[in-house]
Amino acid sequence: MHTIDYVIVGIYLSAMVIVGLLMQKKAKEGIESYFLGNRNLPWWALGASGMSSNLDISGTMIIVALVYAIGAKGFYIEIRGGVTLIMAFLMIYMGKWNRRSKVMTVAEWMSLRFGENKQGDIARFIQAITSIIFTIAMITYFAIGGGKFLDTFLGIPQSWVVHIGSITIGTEFWAAFILMAIAMIYTVASGLYGVIWTDVFQGLLIFLAIIYIVIRALGIQLPEEFAVALPLKEGGFMQLGTTLKEWTSLAPQWRLNIPATSDYSMYNVFGVLVMFYLFKVILEGSGGTGNYMIQRYYAAKNDKEAGLLSLFWTGLLSFRWPFIAALAIWGISLGTQITDPEMVLPTVVSALPIGIKGFLIAGLMAAAMSTFDSTVNAGAAYWVKDIYQKYINPKADEKRLMRHSYGASILIVVVGLLLTVFIKNINEIWSWITMGLGAGLLIPQLVRWYWHRVNGYGYAIGVSAGMFTAILWKVFMKVGIIPDALAPEYFSFLIASLMSLLGIIIGTLATEATDEKTTQNFYNVTRPFGAWGKYKRMLPEITQQAIKKENHRDILSVILAVPWQLTMFMFMMNLVFKSWSQALILGLVFIALSVGLYFTWYRHLSTEVKIN
Fold first, then answer.
1. pLDDT of residue 196
2. pLDDT at 488
3. Residues near 284 by Cβ (< 8 Å), separated by ≥ 6?
């Protein structure tokens, strides 16, 4: 980078620290303020912050790599997580169900669901531990991507490289360390207040970066035939020829023809994978999410604002896809300068003029830091609220709890950063998070909402079995115990999901049910659909009818919302590809689905069933 670029980045980083420190006084009022902003933050700020938090560098580098290498069809692969399709479920009903719980964390939710007793405590403790593990994995993921990106520009000297036996701590590690150390200052100091308002500011910067990249990419005319780089299984890269028509086509295909020597050949069973990813995300969305995403719903004021923040969040998130498409187009135009698909993003930024480069790097750092700060803040809450205050020191005052909030935030980051020494590939850690760790949580998270009989013991056993299997699978893959034939990510997903399913069924049926009073209270508070007939019938007839209408509207609306979100994102991407016929079809479908959602969902946002 040029001196001007460093100055621009320096100004941005200084502004973030100043904003965070200004919020410190408000955050120090207590952990309710530190982790939820006293549930008094405006819905549009929560939505804008959510969008910023979904636009991380690591995820952007992976998605750009897939679209660059596979073309527009790379969009379908990222249904596994990068499309954030769970937003459709959060928008329609899962967001408001969680808001009604009035808890601070998913772990605390377990006490509402299973009671303030032994089984509730076990479920809460297991959820807190697994959420902390998940948070550390996400920090590692952010650190790998952020380090890989920033190392290209910061010019960290080789003298910083450290060798400890067979372990090498390289310049990418130090680049990630610098990024996280700066983000830690305002994250630790200001809690959710600082996270939300710095995210809003960073969102504006991200949007300016998107606008610039998209406008420049629209002026690029790609040739009718070109080659893309693909990673090889044994290391190195290869060139593969394609055509512009094929590369920009979103037409579904059952199989791809990627050479077997490429690491991306796992995607050749394309049709099966896409259906699998869609099935997985539908289950995941129906069970709700955790950590920083759900934290914004716990912080929402009411049902209506939970819906509005989701709508705003999803709308803003759609602008990620023209950005992805523009970067992929730019990568193609650079020809043989691209070898590693995961390096398209930093290579494109390297080609920018002085000043613009600094601005873009600041914007991408904003994307990285906004995801990082949200994850850290949400992860620390599990230690403070669900382990320390609940089991270690229930009488701790706010001052002591705040000290633990700071300490937990720092420790989570340190552990996550150290793990980058052992994991180098972004797609590797992302696949494990979404298809391994995520699979371990998927079934228990789903069943807890819809089956009244599931109890705290069953939930704890199901989560433990799934997470333990996912971690063991990763370790066995690393040491070569599991053969390469079982390497595809869907194997780890299926094994972890199966073990968690068996765990929750056996654990639930072999132990006593949650007491009736606790279960009835949970239903009255959240009012989910599913196998709750016995508890619904305990309510007045007029209330039962109101809940029934709401449930039916929500089921119909989510059926519309899933394709609504997908068509919106694909439409935005096709505008940059200049695939006008595809864009027209997608635009018309999107409009029709929007009209349907208006009548089934939007106009009922202010309707909230009251339990007397």
1. 78
2. 65
3. 86, 438, 442, 445, 446
Give the position of tokens 């003029």.
353
Degrees to nearest 5, angle at CA 346 with 344 and 347: 60
Closest CA to 36 of 334, 447, 374: 374
Taking only the tens place, the pLDDT of each residue in 166-193 is 777 888 888 888 888 887 776 776 677 7
Tokens standing for residue 580: 């006008």
pLDDT confidence of residue 224: 93
All domains in the chain, ordered by first residue: 15-604 (1.20.1730.10)
Distance separating alpha carbons of residues 604 and 592, to the nearest angstrom: 18
pTM of the model: 0.85
Would you state the pLDDT for residue 145? Answer: 76
Q: From its phi and psi, is residue 327 left (phi > 0), alpha (psi between -120 and 50) or beta?
A: alpha
DSSP one-letter code for 531: B
Between the alpha carbon of residue 2 and those of residues 101, 155, 198, 350, 556, the distances in Å are 51, 11, 26, 11, 54
Q: Using CB atoms within 10 Å of the CB of residue 311, give its burial: 0 to 12 exposed, 13 to 18 middle, 19+ buried.
A: middle
Q: Which of 56, 497, 12, 470 is nearest to 292 (CA)?
A: 56
Q: How far is CA 562 from the centre of its chain?
A: 17
Residues 389, 31: Cα–Cα separation, whole Å: 11
Look at residues 228, 229, 236, 230 and name the one whose alpha carbon lies nearest to residue 262: 230
Element (DSSP H or E) covering residue 225: strand 225-231
What pLDDT sits at residue 485? 64
The sign one gets for the Cα dihedral 297, 303, 305, 311 is positive
CB atoms closer than 10 angstroms to residue 242: 15
In sequence order, what DSSP letters do the residues of 362-408 get, joined into one string? HHHHHHHHHHHHHHHHHHHHHHIIIIIIIII-TT--HHHHHHHHHHH
Determine the longest span between alpha carbons in the chain, in angstroms. Answer: 74
**Cβ atoms 525, 469 nearer than 8 A:** no
Residue type, 533: G
pLDDT < 50 stretches in the chain: none
Do residues 121 and 112 lie in contact, with contact meaning Cβ atoms separated by under 8 Å?
Answer: no
The H or E element spanning position 490 is: helix 489-509
